[in-house]
Amino acid sequence: MRRRQLLSRLPPWLGLGLLGVGASATQVAAQHKQLKIMIKSAWGSDDPTRASFPFVHGLALAEAGHEVQIFLTGEATYLMRKETIAAIFPVGWPPLAELRDQVVAKHISVFA
Fold this sequence. Notes:
Elements: H1 2-9, H2 23-31, E1 36-41, H3 48-51, H4 53-63, E2 67-72, H5 82-86, H6 96-105, E3 109-111
Parallel strand pairs: 1-2, 2-3
């Protein structure tokens, strides 16, 4: 800790910027940046836990303050049918129908 304090007091023209002395201020600024994230999935009803990944992760990212979109391809497009989504119960997470309702409430766009 004392070494870091000493190095931070030295002028930047000594080339100590390459050692990461000022990196902590940069990391703090990067943590608050809002990202635009698109989650793509092709997992369908044959693997219910993996099929729910984009919805669970999309909700977590939206709650963290990021702009999220979900893009479903292949078998995952069948997840937009009411009958299919009502029959999917992932291991360790709420039913997919409940996750879908939360996604709609967060205004996350879903493209199929």
